[in-house]
Amino acid sequence: MIHVLSYYLPATLTLMRMTMIYSPRVHGASPLTFNDCLAKNDNTLIVIRDTTGHIFGAYCTEQWRTAHSNNFYGSGDSFVWTFHLGEELRTWGSTNQDDFF
User: Fold this and answer.
1) What mean pLDDT comes out for the span 33-57?
2) How far is the C-alpha of 84 from the C-alpha of 89, rounded, in Å?
3) Model confidence at 24, in pLDDT bands (50, 70, 90)?
4) What is the DSSP string of 37-88?
5) Does the pLDDT of residue 59 top 80, yes or no?
6) Distance between CA atoms of 84 and 53, rounded to whole angstroms?
7) With 80 as the cut, is the pLDDT of residue 50 above it?
8) Is 27 exposed, middle or buried (0-12, 13-18, 19+ CB in 10 A)?
9) Does 101 reside within a domain?
10) 46 assigned to some structural domain
11) What is the residue range of 79's domain?
């Protein structure tokens, strides 16, 4: 799956080594811990697997901010995606039509 996702990532990222910076199994399921782990990182790839086996997530191009902000942020490289075994990877990117992506 990561190999397929790399097709959608900026070329400079495909040359970088990815490291896990947060996992509920390792860090606990606290939203504050999640925010603390991601707060100083640009270019994060979120991967979530639900209890039914669906895998989905997002590629985020800016540092994470607290929920107190009412603004949207990111760039045209940001996208959300979903994948389920036996199906194709689906992505939804920025429309670039407004500031809401």
Assistant:
1) 88
2) 8
3) very high
4) HHTT-SSEEEEEE-TTS-EEEEEE-S----TT--S----TT-EEEEE-TTS-
5) yes
6) 7
7) yes
8) middle
9) no
10) yes
11) 2-93
Q: Tell me which residue of 42, 50, 61, 56 sits closest to 91, measured CA to CA.
A: 56
DSSP 8-state code for residue 18: P
Q: Is residue 78 part of a domain?
A: yes
Q: Are 57 and 51 in contact (CB under 8 A)?
A: no
| pLDDT value at 65 more than 80 | no
| Cβ neighbours for 15, distance < 8 A, ≥ 6 positions apart | none
Length of the chain (residues):
101
Structural domains in the chain (count) = 1
The C-alpha atoms of residue 92 and residue 41 are separated, in whole angstroms, by 22
CA dist 74 and 86 (Å) reads: 31
Strand 79-83 to 55-60 pairing: antiparallel
Is residue 100, in this structure, part of any structural domain at all? no
Q: 70 vs 1, 48, 66, CA distance in Å?
A: 33, 24, 10
